[in-house]
Amino acid sequence: MKASNRIAVLLGVGVLTVGIAVGVFLIVRQSTDEPVGVGVAPVLATTETEGLAKATSFTATVIVTVNGGCEGGAFSDVKTGGPVQIINEGDDVLSTGTLTRVAGDTCSFTASVRNIPTGEKSYGAKVGTATRPVTWKNPDEARQGWQLTLGR
Fold first, then answer.
1. Which of 55, 118, 120, 139 has the fewest other C-beta atoms within 10 Å?
2. Is the backbone of residue 17 left (phi > 0), alpha (psi -120 to 50) or beta?
3. Is residue 134 within 8 Å of residue 118, measured between CB atoms?
4. Residue 144 lies in a domain
């Protein structure tokens, strides 16, 4: 057998051996419920938090769009510098933010509300100083923030 043929056969056997070894490795890793991957950081696959620090607060973004005129009329309290409050079911203020006008043609404002404590059953967003309905969310939804529209 020529040397070039021997090298080709040895390379083929080597590649096959490595392929089998990787396949066996992955099968063994999957059967032990451990994360699978080479060079990939393991991902926590359980909900157990033993030994891990739990977050005590979170930040949420509140986006408000006012239809029918900006910074005037029935929504004159929804303006740059206007308040945003995150409350609990007992109407206790958990955290506050301040509205900032979003550039563009629409009358939109945004506020980043920080240090909202975890552990509440529901979170409500109040915008401005006028009395209007509160938009409620469960804890998972609240972490995603609020997108509110006022007016028609």
1. 55
2. alpha
3. no
4. yes
Residue 100 exposed, middle or buried by CB count within 10 Å (0-12, 13-18, 19+)? middle
Match 């059967």 to its residue by tokens: 31
Tokens coding 133: 């309905």
Q: How far apart are CA 84 and CA 94, in angstroms?
A: 11
Residue 89's nearest CA partner among 116, 123, 59 is: 123
Do the domain assignments include residue 52?
A: no
Q: 127: exposed, middle or buried (C-beta count within 10 Å: 0-12, 13-18, 19+)?
A: buried
Whether residues 81 and 104 fall in one domain? yes
pLDDT in tens, the chain (152 residues): 655 545 544 444 444 344 444 343 333 333 333 333 333 332 222 334 566 788 899 999 999 999 877 767 789 999 999 999 999 999 999 999 999 999 887 899 999 999 999 999 999 999 999 999 999 999 999 999 999 999 87
d(CA 136, CA 11): 64
Q: How far apart are CA 65 and CA 144, in angstroms?
A: 17
Domain region containing 34: 1-45
Give pTM, 2 decimals: 0.64
Q: Does a structural domain hold residue 61? A: yes
